Amino acid sequence: MLRITSKPGPETITLQLEGELTGIWVSELLDAWRAALLTPGFRGLRIDLSAVGRVDKAGEYLLALMRCNGAELVGSGILPRDLIQCIAREWPVANPSAVKEA
Q: Residue 70 sits in which domain range?
């Protein structure tokens, strides 16, 4: 199960994820991403992975795609930090200056 909480801010929209980013829940994150992109005045997206317990390859791929499209991946704890580092290493972006590292 995955809970996605959208937190609009002055500069970015934060999608706070809680649970497992696996299986059908990956499509739920994709839907949340699409909704965020359609938000009037959208400027940027931050994905908070602090409360994520497990991510499968499809989830990792979606996070990498989001990162390559300007989303900032953030998170505290061992799993989120390792995941963010792994995505940054395995899915480099064409213009690294356009993406903030967590």
A: 2-98
Contact assessment for residue 28 and residue 2, using Cβ atoms and an 8 Å cutoff:
yes
Residue 75 sits at the vertex; the CA angle it makes with 77 and 68, to the nearest 5 degrees, is: 135
Dist CA 44 CA 71 (whole Å) = 7
- Cα–Cα–Cα angle for 11, 39, 16, nearest 5°? 65
| CATH number for 20 | 3.30.750.24
pTM: 0.86
Residue 37's CB is within 10 A of a number of other CB atoms, namely: 11
Given a cut of 70, whether residue 77 has pLDDT beyond it is yes
Dihedral pair phi/psi, residue 34, rounded to 5°: -60, -40
Count: domains in the chain = 1
**In whole angstroms, how far apart are CA 70 and each of 54, 55, 97?**
23, 20, 10
Bigger pLDDT: 86 vs 100: 86
CB 99 within 8 A of CB 70: yes
